[in-house]
Predict the structure.
Amino acid sequence: MRPALQLDDLTVCYNRHPAVHHLSGIFNRGSLTAIVGPNGAGKSTLIKAIMGLLPVTTGRIDHAALSPSEIAYLPQQAQIDRSFPITVLDVVMLGHWERIGVLCAVNAELRDQAVAALAAVELVDFQRRPIRSLSAGQFQRVLFARMLLQDARLILLDEPFTAIDARTTADLLNVVRAWHDQQRTVIAVLHDLEQVRTHFPETLLMARSTIAWGQTAQVLTPENLQRARQMAEAWDEQALLCEVNR
């Protein structure tokens, strides 16, 4: 299989410490991969580096010639300001932004696509509601609807099911499975290991560096999980930044 994304000896620093340390591996096209690990393991840092939101210290990220419009990113909800006076439909329409730009007029076809995306996440009757009035689960459905419009080949999700109800989680997992069936590449930072075992065929277990990467059943072994915990317990936050070649 051809790679959708390749990491070559990747190190990404945060506050002068390596949050992702010498990570190498391949996400194949059409793969569905969970990224798991202890708190502070560098999971979200890795996603942000892939998106270009954090600089690479050393190594390389190869996006397989994907353009920005072919990559969709869902940050953690805590990072999103919902106080802005904007409606549900307006948020979903932003999914067209990369393709049509800011100055292009929104026509009936684009609006119909946005409404269809809301219908796919069971929020078609919420389109005129302000986003500040939504529950966490409802707002996550809106964000998934926006991603449906983006029609991306590479989809990055950072803790997409945290603090939302079980029904919403199940419905959004169906959206993720549909993306996988369409041969899109999906990478998700997750904490629920049973959820990973049930729904994600591949897993990257990391504790700043790679603990294991491959088929989920072979990665999430008691031995690997114990090793990740031990590495997390041994982290020295006062250590100097490792020497790197620039």
User: Anything to note?
Assistant: The chain has a mean pLDDT of 90. Residues 166-181 form the longest helix (16 residues). The chain has two domains: 1-66+153-246, 81-152. The longest strand covers residues 3-14.
